[in-house]
């Protein structure tokens, strides 16, 4: 009996949509199954009363996002729809915001670092500069940082480099505990994306690319995939009460979910799948009756609140500074990022209680917030971002060298790159692995794209 599909993709986040897009271009019959009623995954945005609210990812960059920019160009998205943010990132210390984080000038301006720590930051930048070619965000396991955690790596420098730079960046943008996550993926990613001055957003919400990709695809939302079974030369999915067969399945879901779904995964895949743990993320969107922001000598996009200063928040994002269309004229929109240490408790708390706790904590940095805030929305992802633990870093090379099989995987965790670009690259890589096994049917009259990435040329 012939399979029902050439390829079934599980998950309509950026990895799944990219995978399906590439395979559809190659002439294969592809269907995407998404358990939620919307596409985008952690890149989802929604609209309410004139506000555009990003549930997950916050920005992309002019640098380090080559695959994303290629997709945008292919889909005809104008550069003007991806405007530069043009605001500073600051860290809170000694009662005020200190701008200049993610800026090379921090060695001179301080950005919250003491004079001795600035000297050590210069040492850190010199070391990464000397080894720049060995830092590859697509191969973090090969860097000279080895499998050191962020905290272990930071011990060679002044304490402030960890407490007021590495920890707040890791804790806010990645949701990481620096004692558990490897420094190599973080340094590789920061070197690629460059200073905050080059960060950009999507004009109409961070889900712009996801929505455009989904327009040309067969996407079934509200479809829960319960299990995937590898059979001889193909795979079978249980979707709701139905059974679907496909020549190939690509699991574009977090690693713990993929390990649960793929009930007979080959033994050599299991160590990496088990090692790719995730951190939960939680944030509260505050719809304001006026455009408030943390006081600062320069306009801010993000205020980082280090663990050394705050145990409730990790950051405050000024969404109406990210792009004015995020809020109606004369209004404001802030995102309050929860500190990773408190998220497990907040995940089970009533949403109103969670919002109140984060708003009270944020009033310290944004005077008048409690009186200006109206509606709140809580966004929680139990599988927020890949933790990039040392064990995963050590096992990645063997996982990436495995033979192509009926069930493949895609997601930012495959690249150990906690960013949407990691999901896009993983999707393109998964598509190339599928195509190495399957030939597109001649009847569709389509041809395989001239270039699809492999593990060696994905960068």
Automatic annotation (TrEMBL):
- Where does the signal peptide begin and end? none
**What name does UniProt use for this protein?**
Oxygen-dependent protoporphyrinogen oxidase
Q: Which SUPFAM superfamilies match?
A: FAD-linked reductases, C-terminal domain, FAD/NAD(P)-binding domain
Question: Under which EC number(s) is this enzyme classified?
Answer: 1.3.3.15, 1.3.3.4
Keywords attached to this entry = Oxidoreductase
State the superkingdom.
Bacteria
What Pfam families does its record include? Amino_oxidase
In its UniProt record, a GO molecular function of this protein is:
oxygen-dependent protoporphyrinogen oxidase activity
Please name the InterPro entries in this protein's record: Amino_oxidase (IPR002937), FAD/NAD-bd_sf (IPR036188), Zeta_carotene_desat/Oxidored (IPR050464)
For the region Disordered, give the residue spans. 440-459
Q: Which residues form the Amine oxidase domain?
A: 14-435
Q: Which PANTHER family match?
A: PROTOPORPHYRINOGEN OXIDASE (PTHR42923)
Q: Which residues cross the membrane?
A: none
């Amino acid at each position: 009996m012939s399979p029902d599909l050439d390829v079934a993709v599980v998950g309509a986040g950026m990895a799944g949509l990219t995978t399906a897009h590439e395979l559809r271009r190659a002439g294969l019959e592809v269907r995407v199954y998404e358990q939620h009623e919307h596409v985008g995954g952690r890149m989802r945005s929604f609209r309410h009363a004139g506000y555009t609210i990003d549930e997950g990812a916050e920005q992309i960059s002019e640098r380090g996002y080559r695959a994303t920019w290629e997709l945008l160009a292919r889909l005809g998205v104008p550069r003007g729809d991806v405007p530069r943010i043009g605001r500073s990132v600051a860290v809170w210390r000694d009662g005020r915001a200190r701008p200049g984080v993610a800026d090379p000038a921090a060695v001179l301006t301080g950005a919250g670092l003491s004079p001795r720590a600035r000297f050590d930051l210069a040492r850190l930048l010199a070391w990464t500069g000397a080894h720049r070619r060995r830092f590859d965000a697509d191969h973090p396991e090969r860097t000279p940082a080895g499998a050191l955690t962020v905290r272990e790596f930071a011990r060679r420098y002044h304490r402030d480099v960890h407490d007021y730079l590495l920890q707040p960046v890791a804790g806010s943008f990645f949701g990481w505990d620096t004692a558990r996550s490897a420094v190599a993926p973080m340094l590789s990613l920061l070197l690629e994306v460059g200073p905050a001055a080059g960060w950009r957003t999507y004009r109409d919400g961070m889900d712009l690319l996801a929505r455009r990709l989904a327009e040309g695809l067969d996407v079934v939302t509200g479809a829960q995939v319960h299990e995937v079974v590898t059979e001889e030369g193909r795979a079978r999915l249980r979707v709701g009460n139905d059974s679907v067969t496909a020549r190939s399945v690509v699991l574009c879901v977090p690693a713990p979910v993929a390990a649960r779904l793929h009930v007979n995964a080959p033994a050599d895949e299991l160590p990496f799948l088990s090692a790719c743990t995730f951190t939960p993320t939680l944030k509260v969107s505050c719809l304001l009756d006026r455009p408030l922001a943390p006081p600062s000598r320069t306009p801010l996009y993000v205020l980082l609140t280090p663990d050394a200063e705050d145990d409730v928040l990790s950051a405050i994002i000024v969404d109406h500074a990210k792009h004015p269309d995020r809020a109606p004229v004369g209004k404001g929109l802030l995102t309050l990022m929860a500190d990773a240490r408190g998220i497990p408790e907040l995940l089970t708390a009533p949403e109103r209680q969670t919002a109140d706790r984060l708003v009270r904590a944020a009033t310290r940095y944004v005077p008048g917030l409690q009186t200006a805030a109206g509606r709140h929305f809580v966004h929680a992802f139990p599988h927020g971002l890949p933790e990039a633990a040392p064990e995963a870093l050590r096992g990645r090379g063997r996982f990436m060298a495995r033979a192509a099989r009926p069930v493949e995987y895609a997601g930012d965790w495959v690249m150990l790159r906690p960013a949407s670009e990691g999901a896009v690259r993983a999707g393109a890589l998964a598509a190339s692995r599928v195509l190495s096994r399957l030939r597109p049917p001649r009847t569709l009259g389509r041809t395989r794209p001239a270039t699809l990435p492999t593990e060696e040329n994905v960068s």
